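Form 12-C: Joint structure prediction
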Amino acid sequence: MNIVPEITRKSITDLINNQERADGRSLNDYREISLETDVISKAEGSARVKIGNTQIVVGTKSQLGDPFPDTPKVGVIITNSELLPMAAPEFESGPPDEHSVELSRVVDRCIRESRMVDLEKLCIIEGKKVRMVFIDLHILDYDGNLFDAAVLGAVAALLTTKIPKITLEGSEIVIDAENKESLPIRDKALMCTFAKIGDNMILDPSIDEEEILSARLSIGMTESGKICAMQKGGATPLTKEEIMSAVKLTEEKTKVLMEYLP
Amino acid sequence: MIIILTEGTNLGTKSRDDGRAFDELRPLTIEAGVLERADGSAYLEFGGNKVLVAVYGPKESFIRRFQRPDRAYIRCRYNMAPFSVDDRKRPGPDRRSVEISKITAEALQPAILLEKYPRSVIEIFIEVLEAEGGTRCAGITAASVALADAGIPMRDMVVACASGKVNDEVVLDLSEVEDKDGQADVPVAIMPRSGKITLLQSDGSLTPEEFEKAVDLAVEGCQSISKVQKEALKNRYGE
Amino acid sequence: MILVKDKDLVVPGEILAEEESHAGRGTFKEENKICSSVVGLVSIRNNKISVIPLQSKYIPKRGDVVIGEINDIRFSMWGLDINSPYSGLLPASEVFGKEKRELERVFDVGDVLFLRVIDVDEVKKVKLGLKGRGLGKFKGGILVYITPTKVPRLIGKKGSMINMIKDKTRCDIVVGQNGVVWVKGKPDMERIAEKLIKMIEEQAHTSGLTDRVRDLLAELTGEEIVSHSNDKETESETIPSDDSKDQETESDVEEDSQNDEKDQLETDEDQDTQQSENDDDAEEVVADEKTDATEDADKPDKESDSKEEKKFSPHKIIGSKFNFNLKR
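Section 2 - Result
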């Protein structure tokens, strides 16, 4: 329960109504972004992403597992996130809460529905053994807009993931940990998040802005310009015009974000 | 049905797999004040270990049964990232991390002037981002820097380092391989000014003579690490 | 024997002196040795060694003035976040006297108030009051949060620092001893003032800060940069000659800011009456301030060592944020 002082709420809203923001950005600017990959040698793929002071480390690991009965021919990607209590005073230790689950699921949806990874190629023996790729999002510092940072970090980690080669010799599965290969990547997708404050939609809300937003809209878009995921948050409705102008801006901004990818 | 081909990690014939002398530490760097939201923080790399620590507090305690009328209490959480080890670790606490959290809090507590902040809580969050042997010691060393960075008054810093027995020799600062294949592991934490020991564990088989040698070696290691801690704090504000 | 120099940067556990000295705040005695308990700057005054912490939480003290945010309304009191390990209580009787009123009609959750700490009891219950000049609810403006130990630095000798910012940005500024600062002016000027307050916080332990603040102010407000030859004079004026004088100036500062605030603070009608009733409290206010000033006198004061000792580089202190694989 973080109570935002009334005068803080008012000053941020007044600024935005005046097309300004407290940190000097325009309404459609991202904060400074940095992205490094291969930061954790024990992970098969990893990235550290920072948007402003929001900081996330993402690591991927693969293992063999059983396919879901309804999809016997495809591999599995599992996204998990931990809003670590280190990242903000309001985060508690314990099992993932609804914010953490929402974050994991939105990231997962963005990656899966973009068909970024060719999951069929992750199948080893149909109906019996497939590869499972875990994406673990470790939230270290929370300064607003986890969604865009998480997707950017997860995609960068997947692009740099090297998994052991697996071959079938008769009925035996041979996992060759010394010879690694990249994941079968087909496409890329990234996400842009908007916050509605006052009468405006602003891109990449900072923590102060996030605390007072009335509605949030996250849009995932592939490199080819297809919408692959969307999530509206907040209890205030949005108009269709607001949504469509956000989609339009996402087309432009995901292109800019793509340039950070390895 | 499943065959796994891996690179060999067995100990060679050399006394130490990475060619270090028996009393040599792995390369160590510490940086203080690295996180925005936390009151104090530190990042530490020690060999292949990457450890990040955040400190919050002293802050208001809402859990009445932990409150102390005359001092603050410490909440410590040691946690390993799922990707920090070879086989993915399931998220959340396990028995090992619960034990380490407890002994870490106890190792740090004697140094902290808890009586300055009655009824409050000091929270310490240790995140192991990558583990390569000796993470509990790395966590304590980094936590002490993060506590100082948060402005929490302390009698002394706390610094930790392990020694152990590998290939029948007592050596300082076991790597992951040495820890797994070695004969004993002795993590030690001290307050460097007095040399008093605030954490001690021993896992493995040692003669009393070997044990004494191991403790001496670990204390020596702690003393050199202590210099790096102090530099990290001074670098935060100076050159 | 004293083992450190004035303004040395020390860390917890570092031995500062052996015997013959008095242990001030930020230090403790152990076996005839005086040691530092915090990361901070050494201050040696008349054989008393203290360490001024570079980071710390606000611990409420009777008589302090603080800025608090209402986060709870209970039967007969408001609960306030005062940026401290201990939360504050404002009893309804402090506002209404004996009259019964609906609390939320006067102050609501999210309101920001300027208050005085009336009492801190043995279980750390912090009782707050609004009786006194300038105390009351803020309307408009922005809040800036700094480490409470940097408050004296932000105010400056005789209020020199804060007044410089007030003058140049034409903002009203109120500094709570709990490190919460209220700024009100034109929106762009509020942001400039915020930037400068943050800069002072980050560079509080460095020398020549007044010059850098003046330069940045001039740059941001688009005014001409005043030549530095003039500044030297002002600077030498600000060098404290002795401790007692120091304290007086500090209390002046507080009083000044209180007076300034009076007009700036818009209070509810209830308070207005409250205030006129309690105008004679003002004397007491000033007297109380002296105790604070004693503490404030050992703040990391700066200017005095201006040119020759350039120990700290002002540009590095902003947490470099860590690099992965530091050794690469």
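Section 3 - Comments
Residues 28-237 of chain B form a domain with the Ribosomal Protein S5; domain 2 fold (CATH 3.30.230.70). DSSP finds four helices and eleven strands in chain B.
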